[in-house]
Design brief:
alpha+beta, single chain
Length: 204
């Protein structure tokens, strides 16, 4: 009798142990659903996106710096030193210029204008006020200083000094200027040269 009870007890204990193992197995989550694993995966994903985005911004910044360097060279190295050959070479062959509301100009017309401004002001110089680059465009605010000592738009030399600020925006392609927008107040220049007098002015 005791032996039968003893066997029944062992069987009962064995059954209870098996049920506890099954219950523990049911409570254990899959490895991939662990909070630690999910958290680590999120960190790895963020790091991957971070390093994927960095080269894009770095490349964009590098290109903008290169375009700004080319813009400075065009203005303050080539034009200021009358190096028209290199000034022309920094433009694309299909270059287009937009000046205020005037019809668009091509590269040959741009070179004519570039040389002509020095014919009318032999001491003309450009200085940079500020420069901003974004994408393929560079905006330059500059100051032009010179003396009207040559024929300007058919007007004989007046000998007057002038100083004017203006802005140009260049679009670059492959390190060269492909398009330009110039914003310049002609009236200010005419006033300084005595070619235009405001209504009611007593200046002669």
């Amino acid at each position: 009798m005791r032996r039968g009870v003893y066997l029944d007890a062992r069987v009962s204990q064995s059954g209870d142990s098996h049920e506890e193992q099954e219950t523990a197995g049911e409570k254990q989550e899959p490895f991939w659903r662990s909070y630690r694993v999910q958290g680590a995966g999120a960190v790895v994903l963020c790091i991957g996106l971070f390093f994927l985005l960095i080269p894009s911004h770095a490349t964009g910044g590098k290109l903008e710096d290169q375009n700004k360097a080319a813009a400075r060279a065009a203005f303050f190295d080539y034009l200021n030193h009358r190096d028209f050959k290199r000034f022309e070479e920094i433009h694309t062959k299909d270059f287009v210029k937009h000046f205020n509301n005037s019809p668009a100009e091509n590269l040959s017309e741009e070179m004519r204008d570039a040389k002509g401004q020095f014919d009318s002001s032999s001491d003309l110089t450009f200085t940079e006020n500020w420069m901003i680059a974004e994408g393929d465009k560079v905006a330059v605010c500059f100051t032009a200083k010179g003396t009207h000592d040559g024929v300007f738009q058919g007007v004989p030399a007046t000998g007057k000094r002038y100083e004017l600020s203006a802005m140009t925006v260049w679009r670059f392609t492959g390190g060269k200027i492909a398009e330009e927008w110039v914003f310049f107040n002609d009236l200010d220049l005419y006033r300084k040269l005595g070619l235009f007098k405001d209504p009611g002015s007593t200046d002669h």
